[in-house]
Specification:
The chain has about 425 residues and is mainly α. It has a single domain, classed as Growth Hormone, Chain: A, CATH 1.20.1250. About 80% of the residues lie in helices and about 0% in strands. The two termini are about 35 Å apart. GO terms for molecular function: transmembrane transporter activity.
Length: about 425
């Protein structure tokens, strides 16, 4: 029996895994239902659609930048399981607000003045929810798992996250916005129920006062975290990677609509393929590394991601579509569709292989009493990079660069995380010989 199989059946892991999976599903069901509705039913301009996608991405990640320091302190100073239960209770109220926004949008009530603002407010609140849950889902792993299980646990959490993203994206693309409004509330209730079974995870270090000055706390948190060169390089590489992914996520829906003349179900399919690929990459890299935490394959993985992006852009540029929006069967029947989807899968698989070992660095090379704050510091830097990525995507559109050509810019950006991944590998080897 493999380590992953043993973990998925263990109470010390399964309730956390299910709770995380339901939260990720709900995030993506709500966000994609909102974005698909606005892009396909409200706007009719590639630039406006890109900007709305960018704003939605930015609204969700801003809380990570502002509140991650407090979230990390809280997770290390209090029982992590208890915090999970409080956060999941809040999700129910948040999704009631978001569901109301979706229902009003469906009925055509106050699209620009009420329903969209309500949905963006709920999206911001879900960002706050995820900010406080994020450090815990990784920091609790070394507390409940054995040392040889941490990489497998991290890979399962990542794979589960992306499978939940997959499911949420599929559902958002295929059900009506009114059904999405009901579903997000029900899933929040299920998440709260599963959180009741997460085993206790009390603080491991001395209890310190919480610093509620988020800017001072954020600066101190980052400075205290990056003293280990491996952790610093891992955080930078992860952050650049997520900035690149943010640009891609902003591009996918406008690209499907305006370049490929494809329906929102096809846009959903793109996000599904990406999620499946990252899940495959997350599990594959654990098998290649055999449980060892290492950046051995990270540089070549992200370079491969850039290569797949160039191929993806080439196929999109050669795409010939008629005037009508293609549904999924019509899209699949297009002669270039299989190659396009395989290339997209390659982008995601290589991305998953790049990022999972880097997360394991963050939970392995710090004291267990500091893991939540390390993840929080990573979230602060990640979220800042993701906001920059979202704004960068909007800026490229404002400058008149066609969405398909923006893919080449993203491919070039893959050289940055490749360099930091290589630097991390060198630091890793230097630490082994020291």
């Amino acid at each position: 029996m493999t380590t992953s199989t043993q973990l998925i059946r263990a109470r010390r892991f399964l309730p956390l895994f299910v709770t995380q999976l339901l939260g990720a599903f709900n995030d993506n069901l709500f966000k994609n239902a909102m974005v698909f509705f606005v892009v396909y039913s409200v706007y009719n301009s590639e630039t406006a659609e890109m900007w709305f996608s960018a704003v939605a991405s930015g609204v969700f990640v801003v809380p990570f930048f502002l509140l991650s320091a407090l979230a990390g302190q809280l997770a290390d100073m209090r029982d992590k399981a208890q915090i999970i239960r409080v956060v999941k209770a809040c999700e129910i109220g948040i999704m009631m607000v978001g569901g109301a926004g979706l229902l009003l949008a469906w009925r055509g009530v106050g699209i620009g003045t009420l329903s969209i603002p309500l949905m963006l407010l709920a999206l911001f609140a879900m960002g706050v929810h995820s900010t406080f849950f994020g450090p815990i889902k990784y920091a609790i792993l070394p507390q409940h798992l054995k040392q040889g299980e941490v990489l497998a646990g991290t890979g399962l959490v990542e794979a589960g996250t992306y499978m939940a993203v997959l499911a949420g994206t599929i559902v958002a693309g295929w059900i009506g916005v009114h059904w999405a409004a009901i579903a997000v509330v029900l899933v929040a209730c299920l998440g709260f129920a599963s959180s009741q079974f997460v085993p206790p995870a009390p603080p491991l270090g001395a209890i310190e006062p919480l610093d509620f000055n988020v800017f001072r706390a954020s600066r101190k948190l980052i400075m205290d975290t990056v003293h280990d060169r491996r952790v610093f390089l891992a955080i930078v590489a992860i952050s650049i990677f997520w900035a690149i992914c943010t640009i891609l996520f902003v591009q996918f829906t406008p690209l499907a609509k305006n370049v490929l003349s494809a329906s929102k179900e096809v846009a959903s399919l793109f996000l599904v393929i990406f999620s499946v690929g990252v899940a495959i990459g997350s599990v594959s890299i654990n098998a290649l590394l055999k449980g060892t935490v290492s950046a051995k394959y990270s540089p070549m993985s992200v370079i491969a991601m850039g290569g797949f992006l160039i191929a993806f852009e080439s196929i999109c540029s050669d795409w010939q579509a008629g005037g009508a929006m293609m549904d999924v069967p019509t899209f699949i029947a297009h002669p270039l569709a299989p190659t396009l989807l395989l290339t997209l899968l390659g982008i995601a698989v290589s991305g998953g292989m790049f990022v999972v070992p880097l997360y394991a660095f963050l939970t392995t090379f710090v004291e267990k009493s500091q893991t939540a704050r390390t993840i929080a510091a990573n979230n602060i830097v990640n979220s800042g990079a993701m906001v920059v990525g979202a704004l960068f995507a909007g800026l490229l559109s404002m400058l008149g660069l066609a969405v398909v050509k923006q893919l080449l810019v993203v491919a070039g950006c893959c050289l940055l995380p490749a360099w930091f991944g290589y630097a991390l590998l060198r630091a890793e080897r230097a630490a082994l010989t020291a």
